[in-house]
Amino acid sequence: MTQITASARYDVCAVGNAIVDVLSPCDDAFLKAQSLTPGSMQLVDAGQSAALYDAMEAGVEASGGSAGNTVAGVGSFGGRAAYIGKVAEDVLGQVFTHDIRASGVHFDTPVLADGAATGFGTGRCLINVTPDGQRTMCTFLGAANQLSVEDIDTALIGDSAIVYLEGYLFDPAPARAAFEAAAAAAHAAGRKVAITLSDTFVVARWRAELLDFITASADIVLANEGELAALFETEDFDAAAAQLAAVVELAAVTRGEHGSVIINGDERVAVPAYPVDKVVDTTGAGDQYAAGFLLGVARGLPLEAAGRLGSLAASEVIAHWGPRPMVKLADLAAQNGLSV
Amino acid sequence: MTQITASARYDVCAVGNAIVDVLSPCDDAFLKAQSLTPGSMQLVDAGQSAALYDAMEAGVEASGGSAGNTVAGVGSFGGRAAYIGKVAEDVLGQVFTHDIRASGVHFDTPVLADGAATGFGTGRCLINVTPDGQRTMCTFLGAANQLSVEDIDTALIGDSAIVYLEGYLFDPAPARAAFEAAAAAAHAAGRKVAITLSDTFVVARWRAELLDFITASADIVLANEGELAALFETEDFDAAAAQLAAVVELAAVTRGEHGSVIINGDERVAVPAYPVDKVVDTTGAGDQYAAGFLLGVARGLPLEAAGRLGSLAASEVIAHWGPRPMVKLADLAAQNGLSV
Questions:
Q1: Is residue B47 part of a domain?
Q2: Do B280 and A320 touch (CB under 8 A)?
Q3: Is B180 helix (H, G, I), strand (E, B) or coil?
Q4: Is the pTM here over 0.90, yes or no?
Q5: Whether A53 and B24 lie within 8 Å, measured CB to CB
Q6: B205 to chain A, minimum CA–CA distance in Å?
């Protein structure tokens, strides 16, 4: 991995679907009755979202969105982070904006001004969580779907060591163009482009396009082992890792309770997971791993140290409801003898 | 305690301030900087609410309101519960309505129709939680403040074994009238009237009025030891308990980690707290104790059994963020060998 040398104002700037999560407990029978594939994310329209919400248990709301969760984690570690994403001018948009700024993240993407009038409220993700902590997500993108090339602040991206993109952005067409523009702006400024594969089904839908994008434009890939298997259509982890190493400079693949493996050319660095008393809700686990890992890389830490920051952040978030840290990750890192 | 004999459609019908909570971590220095008294609840106006929210850390949102939390707990135990309270026609109102109904609670108080136009959005409570789990609350009542006598469904109350009233309702004048009307409707139907003292500062503000109300109209009082001390202006628990026993048929006083004491004439029943690995957020502890206790009383359980249901529900809610159960309390009771 080439060291990131040129000084940058931000460690990580993320581009993503700006969404508020609604998290409720459920059982397996509920997922079956609602025809939901356990562990998946699917897009739903406003009507489907309303119908599913009606059927869900009482729950909690929390700002979400994969890349938004990640930069909130970077901010919580004390890193310098920025975010680009679209909310509407409504209560959920205010909540999203408050939370990401309160995490120390720079966020000033123009709000979708006539959100209420157009019916594009702030996006929301309905998350049903089974007793084992696994989450199944149905996302109504709403205003997030209106993110466009005009929202890409190229100066902001040029001043960030790493720009981080969600695979989820491959789904909405206008966002895909924003995604490409962000990557181009980063490379034009000599910065690194990181992408998360986001979801097995996203990979299945956009496999060829994702692979093309990674090969042409990505420097760093984040994935879990299911997404890696889907990308290369093989359950052979070592074979898939080798294929990924051939097309990207650096990658980190999470393996749940088995920790993660960092892939750097021929090098493989295995990083253990931090123990958790009880897994409550795995929402945000991968996002928080990405927060620690990307911040570590942006700061030039050894790869294992970057991975450990990721593991630590993931262990915090899966022990409670919601996808973002509820403690200062900077304090948690210090308590665990890790430096940022 | 006279047994509740006449059959009723609902075990508990609560009247309260319908509010959505915003919960964020904070430290003691933050409370000091914001001039907030640790552990208190104070009313704030829209401007104060917005200014405090701006200063708060990122957090989570969850349906709240003391009596709303209690009936959600009753519903989670499998009890039959109803709720009367006022929300506006906005996203937070939808969240409140969804959550309380999803907990199995009957709720059909007319929504404040022109909420957006009048500026009375759904009420919200900003809750700052210190690392020891203690919560400090600032409530903007919003639409909840518009609850009036016309909202009191006397048929619903007449068909409920216990009507449960928040001491918090003593603060807004129209709600106070609703409060009195609800108590009158319950007694007219031969039902029991329960009240929680809610907060030490509420007791201090309305001490004489609360004492008059309890003496004239309440059959059951819920309180914590601080509120009991404030009501009788003495730190002598036994003396205060005796004074309470002289004016009310039945009472339960919670004592944090020391459990609770049930007061029934000359009888005192000490009920232990259930152990909790880590206290995360005490918001809703008293409300969930009330849920178990009132349901037990409505069902004619022995007082100690009713208290144990309360202790169990409180132990669940303080182990996570938010004021309502995130598991089915009916299942939790069964796992702990308690019958409802």
A1: no
A2: yes
A3: helix
A4: yes
A5: no
A6: 32
> Token pair of A257, please?
């309770």
- Predicted confidence pLDDT, tens digits, chain B (340 residues): 445 556 899 999 999 999 999 999 999 999 999 999 999 999 999 999 999 999 999 999 999 999 999 999 999 999 999 999 999 999 999 999 999 999 999 999 999 986 666 778 999 999 999 999 999 999 999 999 999 999 999 999 999 999 999 999 988 878 888 989 999 999 999 999 999 999 999 999 999 999 999 999 999 999 999 999 999 999 999 999 999 999 999 999 999 999 999 999 999 999 999 999 999 999 999 999 999 999 999 999 999 999 999 999 999 999 999 999 999 999 999 999 999 9
**Which residues form the domain of B78?**
10-17+66-91+99-110+145-335
ipTM above 0.90, yes or no: yes
Contacts of A57 in chain B (CB under 8 A): 102-103
Q: Residues A212-228: what's their mean pLDDT?
A: 97
The answer to whether A327 contacts B25, with C-beta atoms less than 8 Å apart, is: yes
d(CA B239, CA B152): 36
Torsion angle, alpha carbons of A205, A321, B330, B228, to 10: -160
Asked if A24 lies within 8 A of B102 by C-beta distance, the reply is yes
**B102 contacts in chain A (CB < 8 Å):** 24, 56-58
Question: Which helix (DSSP H) or strand (DSSP E) does residue B313 occupy?
Answer: helix B303-317
B260 within a domain of the structure (yes/no): yes
C-alpha R_g of chain B: 18
Instruction: Give the count of domains, chain A.
Output: 1
Residue B150 C-alpha, separation from nearest chain A C-alpha, in angstroms: 28
* CB contacts, 8 Å: A59 with chain B: 62, 99, 326
B306 falls within a domain: yes
Contacts A121 to B, Cβ<8 Å: 91
Residue type present at position A197: L
Q: Are strands B135-140 and B123-129 parallel, antiparallel or unpaired?
A: antiparallel
| Distance (Å) of CA B200 to CA A185, A234, B236, B293 | 57, 63, 16, 21
| Residue A283's pLDDT band (cuts 50, 70, 90) | very high
3 state SS of A193:
strand
Chain A contacts to B (CB-CB under 8 A): 24-25, 53-54, 56-63, 72, 90-92, 95, 98-100, 102-103, 121, 277, 280, 320-322, 324, 326-327
Whether B124 is in a domain gets the answer: no
Contact residues on chain A for B121, CB-CB shorter than 8 A: 91
Preferred mutation among B60, B283, B288, B332 to probe A, highest tally of A CBs within 10 A: B60
Q: Are A134 and A32 in contact (CB under 8 A)?
A: no
User: For the domain that residue A326 is a member of, what is the CATH number?
Assistant: 3.40.1190.20
